[in-house]
Write the structure tokens for this entry.
Amino acid sequence: MTDAKKIATTTIRKKMTRRTAELLRRLSEIPKKGYAFGHQDALSYGITWKNNGKKMKSDVALVCGKYPAVFGFELGNLEKALPNSIDSVNFDIMRKLIRKAYKKGGVVTLSWHPDNPVSNGNAWDITKAVPSLLPEGDRYDTLYEWTKNLAHFFRSLKDKKGKRIPVIFRPYHEMNGGWFWWGKGHCNAQEYQRLWRETHRLLVREFKVHNLLYCYSPNLLFRKKDYLTYYPGDAYVDMLGIDVYQHLTTGLFKRHLKKDLRTLQTVAKAKNKPYALTETGLEKVNTANWFTKVLHPLLKDSGICYALVWRNDSERHHYAPFPGHTSCDDFIRFSRLEEVLFLNDLKR
Ligand code: BMA
């Protein structure tokens, strides 16, 4: 690392708000007690309801009486300054829910599925785009505008006293898969890293956003050495993650997750950064005792700070139980396990 870069890095770290540094410390300390349970869009909607932002509500809480400790929110569409996310959550309501989650001691993590800046299709439109977003590219102005719109939202996340709420930002995820425009096959590792660093630079330097922790999260790996292929560098990443879903058999999921969690642990320990299972789940949760017999045994000694299951969109697309679901009893048992931390277990 050149001296100039070293100085730049130190400056960036120093600007992090006190609360953001505190969030980083909290995340590092969670594994001493267990791991936190997270749910994507937990507060925004459930299978039969939608939140207007006035009160906390969650399918998970309706089932087991406890709120998740980690709350996922999705930012897709915010880059275009649209009023609602790609999953139909109004951003003003989202802001209110983030405030409530933080006030109660919860951890907030933000995913982002931005549209394809070249084709105007969605995040899954794999028209080549990354090179054109880079400073020398012909769509750099789009990256600038989009990042500005995100920054505006991040800066608006404030508690009652006007202090900025710290959140985890997990952009350009699952880059080692080929399904997103920023993923494998649609840009090379160097272009990806430059996109990440430029986004980071714009947020920190240009738009003065200092309440974010940056999380790097590839999808399921094939080889251990693949974890860092797209890694933008220690100065641009605060925590490490991995997304591993059960798409096929339980046996395969167990084998894959076990291996990947070990990789994650090794890399994160060497880098001294907290790490998490940033997305997981079995769609529809239709395996008996999945939470207590499949997921938990894999996670309990993994050292992760949290595991987040994906969203409860509909009867066909959900990852957490809801009242009446066949996995409710198992989930209640899961929620009572000492090592599984819910909102009340995370003291700030
Ligand atoms: C995917 C699905 C989509 C959703 C996207 C972003 O896994 O749940 O329906 O739009 O995540 O949240």
Summary: The first strand starts at residue 35 and ends at 40. Residues 234 and 271 are 8 Å apart (CA to CA).
